[in-house]
């Protein structure tokens, strides 16, 4: 990122001077690294967006007609998916079917297939819940979508960087994820993979740096979807993160994540008064889980963990209101604990002991000014 | 016809990796739709053009580098 600001602080692809050319080459190098990481043969199919929300908006708005149609998604979707769908529904009178979980917290592919209608235009599925961390059956649902000829969008926000992915090989049409989570990049960059052969109307139009005399935006990807100035420092930062990830042993990365998640689950499940919202089998999840601590509101517990232990967790609905409805955690909400590739066993132990400390002292919330549960 | 900077940059990388030293240089947008051109310094320019020509025929075909890619035919200049 520093190199970007010092060595090629110009608009990539928009100008032929040395700085613009340097920026063009640097952004392409980052795009190519990310494409290698995600196993995308043609890097031009990887659109650089401002984040997963922008990428999902582009994918959803670009896939749905202005007239009424039908969309299927799961209970686990984030508001980055739900709100564009609600907006489309209000505007067009379209229908959205929410497929609830079954068999524990997982979505059942057969339930989803039963929801398909003749006018179903899009299936959207969260690859893993940002509330429970539970993985969704992406491959099975993708095969169903292909069998029915329905476009399939995956919100990969919680899984990118957690597994060795092969997007070209997966039965998906569109994939969105942020750069700052598992991909370890800076905030302000996200990715949208658009399978070759699919072209979307661009959500934002403007200068592309070429073919400027035309009224229409360029037809080719990725510039068709990247009007205006891209976040060159952020993109180069994400490219560097991709190079780091490419050097990792993915089996070891995943094995380590499962081990830490297992330790965290085991530890928290032994604390009296703690209820977990996640899978029983860490192999079916990623490094995220939610919990409630008896005697504490989620906000009070999160505040106490921060204040007393410098442990940063997020309380609330986590931008996934339907997920919390399904978990019956409305209005109390939950505390979400996340682990990453640099989390260690000692930190897991610290979290478990901190939660136990809170669980033994529900009254402290009132003394500290937090909001205890009545 | 691919004309954008991403494809041009990809062509640059493929040619470089394939042993064809080249550079991206500025060009008037009227001459090259993206205002950039590939400048290739190589005795066997026909081979360079053959790579680009082949890719122009199948621009989205996934093939192993250095054959993969581009089409920036109109962005190629000989130096």
User: Which pair of chains forms the biggest interface, and how many residues does each contribute?
Assistant: A-B, 32 and 25 residues
The number of distinct β-strands of chain A equals 11
Whole-number total of structural domains of chain A: 2
* Secondary structural class of chain B: alpha+beta
Task: Output the CATH topology of the largest domain in chain A.
Answer: Aspartate Aminotransferase, domain 2
Number of helices of chain B: 2
Outline of chain B: globular
Give me the CATH architecture of the largest domain in chain A, please: 3-Layer(aba) Sandwich
Number of helices of chain A: 12
CATH-defined superfamily of the largest domain in chain A: Type I PLP-dependent aspartate aminotransferase-like (Major domain)
Number of strands of chain B: 3
Unreliable spans of chain A: none
Distance between the first and last residues' Cα of chain A: 49 Å
The biggest sheet of chain B amounts to: 3 strands, mixed
> Beta-strand level of the residues of chain A, as a percent range?
5-15%
Low-confidence stretches of chain B: 57-79
Outline of chain A: globular
Describe this structure in words.
The complex is a heterodimer of chains A (374) and B (79). Chain A has 374 residues and is α/β, with parallel strands linked by helices. Chain A is built from twelve helices and eleven strands. Chain A has helices at residues 2-7, 18-37, 52-63, 79-92, 109-114, 138-148, 232-246, 250-269, 298-309, 321-327, 345-359, 364-367, and strands spanning 46-49, 70-74, 95-99, 120-126, 151-155, 174-178, 190-194, 274-277, 288-293, 314-316, 334-338. In chain A, helix 8 (250-269) packs parallel to helix 11 (345-359). Chain B is α+β, with helices and mostly antiparallel strands and 79 residues long. Chain B has one domain (5-78). Chain B has two helices and three strands; from the N terminus they run αββαβ. Chain B starts with a helix and ends with a strand. At the A-B interface, helix 2 of A face helix 1 and strand 1 of B.
